[in-house]
Amino acid sequence: MNLKGKAAVVTGGSKGIGRAIAESLIDAGVNVSISARNEDEIRRAVADLNERGSGRAAGFVCDVRDEAQVRSYFAQTVEHFGGVDILVNNAGIGLFAPVESMSPEDFRAVIETNVCGMFYCCHEAIPLKKQRGGGYIINISSLAGTNAHPRLAAYNASKFGLN
Asked: What sign does the dihedral 28-34-36-41 (CA atoms) show?
């Protein structure tokens, strides 16, 4: 599959799995827009990514729990790369504790990041991909979405919801 010249969004792309995905896409000639919550991490990742393959990288601060930030992130990506062909919903958090000791705020943070964030990104990406004749959405999940683990109630629920 030739992806050269396509534009991808990789949420949570400054480190870990998201960073590895962004690197692979850049190496394949894809222009990649990464997001994360930490501006310094984004700046470093973009600089490193632009030292790699034939694709170009851009990065923008975005907390995927915030619908307005997601809208802004996609608008900035379109302004920078002209559109979106690929969405990789990778941003996610896991806060691990038994239900009785997890705060409601922590539970909401996991659900809002791992489920609502994915929805907000798809909501923005689908019309953009339709304008360009289609594309791909890849949602990064976990076995925790099918095999419940103790101390992972919020994470299990979020990945089950994603699946």
From this structure: positive
Residue 155 designated active-site = yes
Catalytic residue among 73, 120, 136, 155: 155
What does the block give as tokens for 86? 């690929």
pTM: 0.94
**Structure confidence by residue, pLDDT tens digits, 79-114:** 999 999 999 999 999 998 989 999 999 999 999 999
Which secondary-structure segment (H or E) carries 160?
A: helix 153-162
Mapping DSSP to helix (H, G, I), strand (E, B) and coil, where does residue 35 land? Answer: strand
Residues of the chain with pLDDT under 50: none
Please state, in angstroms and rounded to a whole number, the distance separating the CA atoms of residues 77 and 100: 41
Q: In what order do the strands lie in the sheet with 31-36?
A: 57-61, 31-36, 7-11, 86-89, 136-139
